[in-house]
């Protein structure tokens, strides 16, 4: 997807509002030009002391243009920003939806801070593209054409000079500036993303960096990224200053040409003295509209870079896709199988090869193996975050690729090792699973996860804040709360990925016993690297010895 196609598809629903904004902006700028022209004529004419009735039409026109300019400018801002913000909201939702479709396998090549930058600042660039680039250029083109015709009617030479000045400011300067600013403005979006990613890495990894004395190097790299961004901003500012100087020069040249050509015409009798002021002063109002075009060109370069980054995400291939005609899944209990499965997160790097696994109704199966053996890849296959490159994964004999992924994930629940807790209350974290759940249902889920007694001791109970990433809770409490959320959802099959990670043997055994007791008669796949789990499950599957299994 190109950035231009992305902009066109994003802006098309708000085309009516954008057209209204262009018309209102053209009216406002035209009123400014009309105000300058009529005022110039009125002052020149009044200096000759004609009867006041001869000035009444001009006086009324000055009032109308003065009032209309403000009203139309407000209408332009209102219509333009309303349309742009609507586009912004829809595009942000579209990007977020696409990220959800790609996660997690399709986002392996992106850093989290960079994705946050694309979802926030890069989407905001669409607002700049619409309100600071397209609208100013459309308004300047229409008003400029009308003004050239007006001035050229009285003095062809002044009209040609005005046309040349407008082309210089509106076309030549932006083109030259765009070429010069390509490295500066075109790099600002990725530089901001690089700076954001480095900052997040520094903040999250600061304890480890301090412990190993590596903080100074990271800070130096962060300072280097900041310096690159600052230099890019300085180049953009310098170019803006040069553009402003050229605009002022072009305005002055048009005034001088208009004055010289108008004076010759007045002396020859081809032009009245009152209209000389119109020819000389009208370009001032016209260039007030055109003066924003060089800055608009700079916004264009930066916004285009941001739109390209958004188009990159939106056009990224999805690791899985919904079937055109999904099949119905019979009511449970359910059986999950991997049949001679190969899998890879990136092409050419196979993680699993010829893997067979069966999870029968009500079974408790442990999947063991060292780190990097592909245990979490099995979990991703079972919830269809990833599709196999060979073989197939089935639910009750139906290939998962024929089942709607949303339906599958209502049946099979996955609790990753780092299950995320939001910086909100216990109740709000639980209601992510069921927004309509009552407090009694929340307490029932907490009781199943062996957390209700602890929650009862808290002063705020269910309204207790868990902190960022659940930092106010212990490791075991975080895992139990994540499990309570899964139990509240009502999954029939649960996959527990490293549920006892970072716990000592005694606490790990106690937590695992509680977790397995809490899941009741659901089918459970426990993914772990611990080898002392055999007594707690029905079957142990060792990825290092597949396809053999160790029955218990």
UniProtKB/TrEMBL annotation:
Query: Which molecular-function annotations from GO does this UniProt entry contain?
Result: ABC-type transporter activity; ATP binding; ATP hydrolysis activity; ATPase-coupled lipid transmembrane transporter activity
Biological process annotations from GO:
cell redox homeostasis; glutathione transmembrane transport
Keyword Protein biosynthesis belongs to the record: no
Q: Which SMART domains match?
A: AAA (SM00382)
Residues forming the ABC transmembrane type-1 domain are 19-302
User: Which keywords does UniProt give here?
Assistant: ATP-binding, Membrane, Nucleotide-binding, Transmembrane, Transmembrane helix
List localization entries. Answer: Cell membrane
Q: Which residues form the ABC transporter domain?
A: 336-552
Taxonomic superkingdom: Bacteria
Query: GO cellular component annotations, sorted alphabetically?
Result: plasma membrane
Membrane-spanning parts: 52-72, 134-151, 157-176, 238-263, 275-297
* Membrane topology label: Multi-pass membrane protein
> What is the name attached to this protein's record?
Thiol reductant ABC exporter subunit CydC
Q: Which source organism?
A: Winogradskya consettensis
Lineage of source species? Bacteria, Bacillati, Actinomycetota, Actinomycetes, Micromonosporales
